Amino acid sequence: MGKKLATSIQYIKNILTTGAVGQTSREVELEICAHIPRGDNKVIVEYGMGLGNITMEILNTIAPTSRLYAFEVNKEFCEKAGKTIDDKRLIIINAGAETLNDYIHEPVDSFISSIPFSFFSKEVSDQIIQSSYRLLKDGSYFSQVLLTKFNFKKFTKVFDECEMIRLGNIPVEFIYHCRKRERTNS
Q: Which of 93, 174, 178, 181 has the smallest number of Cβ neighbours within 10 A?
């Protein structure tokens, strides 16, 4: 069995936690990472690491002094990614995004997410989005990939600026780039 087919089978078997039938495209990897800051000592949080293709793009984007906290609920995915990605900047957390505050106690420079908000209750979705907003540094982005545009409103209720980009892949994928506005002290 080819690697691509084996990977798709892993995602399909876990569709309720991955919300996907396969790894995201290269186009998604590049677009979702477009607003990651490239300076030193940045803290990046990824929700839904899967087998790590977006994770690898994040690591290729961030500075050697930065850190990436990758949340993934599937233990098997965590183990596989841990074996294939050898990078001291990566901290894999085998837990859901709703546990963010149990693990991260510092301001975050960017959130990258591929978790399936369509499968979460309104309460869990709202908790994840609001907790992320509170930890996100002013002027920074939360970027989300989904197969639907119907969750966009959840983000516009919390974030100060939001844009949705439609990628013409099959299936169609949507990237939400949501920004927390810079606050001025006056």
A: 181
